[in-house]
From TrEMBL:
Active-site residues per Swiss-Prot or TrEMBL entry: D12 (nucleophile), D14 (proton donor/acceptor)
Keywords: Isomerase, Magnesium, Metal-binding
Top enzyme class: isomerase
Binding site for Mg(2+): D12, D14, E173, D174
Descriptive protein name: Beta-phosphoglucomutase
Cofactor note: Binds 2 magnesium ions per subunit.
Length: 216
């Protein structure tokens, strides 16, 4: 068998293209204070790559607390999102992580199709605010998928939208759930972070600055 010919690249958003975790933290922290729930940056790590409602459940589990009704939970999530959107509305190109733009430009020059595979329902706004939207052929975000990573749905949908077989796609991910989802989809997984934290990835990079399409 010859070397696999990859034709598509699928990028996670938070932690790969931009660092929105700090804004998620500030917005969740404000809600936690109002509900008198202790919530630290360490706790925030558990929310990375997790959907909005699942994140709220984790936050509520940190308090010694009453059960809230479904409508109360909806209101908490809406309030958090209102604050989060206020933060991301102020984002600009200066928040793009190192190596991202050269990588996207290089992939475009080589005719590689590019998709987003994110759990965030706010992904289009973030790509638009940072000027990254124009690099993407297809977007798959929290509005399109029912099953969260490590389920492969988000990446399989990305390959399908690009019209490519899953095994010709490369996924860029900073979470273990995301790397594991990429492998379950039959794709090549580039882990952005330490090997010890991302055991499912095929290779590991500190940032996209170190990435070379030719070496995979
Ligand atoms: P939203 P990713 C994820 O983005 C974040 O890592 C996670 O912390 C967040 O809860 C989730 O999006 C949903 O975000 O509330 O904007 O829909 O890493 O999958 O790009
Ligand atoms: Mg991520």
């Amino acid at each position: 068998m010859g070397k696999q010919i990859y034709q598509g690249a699928i990028f996670d958003l938070d932690g790969v293209l931009v660092d929105t975790a700090k804004y998620h933290f500030l917005a969740w922290q404000a809600l936690a204070e109002e509900l008198e729930i202790p919530f630290s940056e360490h706790d925030n790590e558990r929310l990375k790559g997790v959907s909005r409602m699942a994140s709220l459940e984790i936050l509520l589990s940190l308090g010694n607390n009453p059960t809230y009704s479904a409508s109360e939970k909806e209101a908490f999530a809406a309030l958090k999102n209102e604050r989060y959107v206020a933060y991301i509305s102020e984002m600009d190109a200066s928040e793009i992580l190192t190596g991202v733009k050269p990588t996207l430009e290089n992939l475009r020059e080589q005719g590689i199709r590019i998709a987003l595979g994110s759990a965030s329902k706010n992904a289009p706004l973030i790509l638009e605010r940072t000027g990254l939207l124009r690099y993407f052929d297809e977007l798959v975000d929290g509005n399109d998928v029912a099953k969260a990573k490590p389920d492969p749905e988000v990446f399989l949908r990305g390959a399908e939208k690009m019209g490519l077989p899953p095994e010709t796609c490369v996924v860029f991910e900073d979470s273990e759930a995301g790397c594991s989802a990429a492998k379950a989809a039959g794709m090549y997984a580039v882990g952005i972070g330490k090997a010890a934290n991302l055991p499912s990835a095929d290779e590991h990079l500190a940032s996209l600055e170190a990435f070379s399409w030719k070496e995979i």
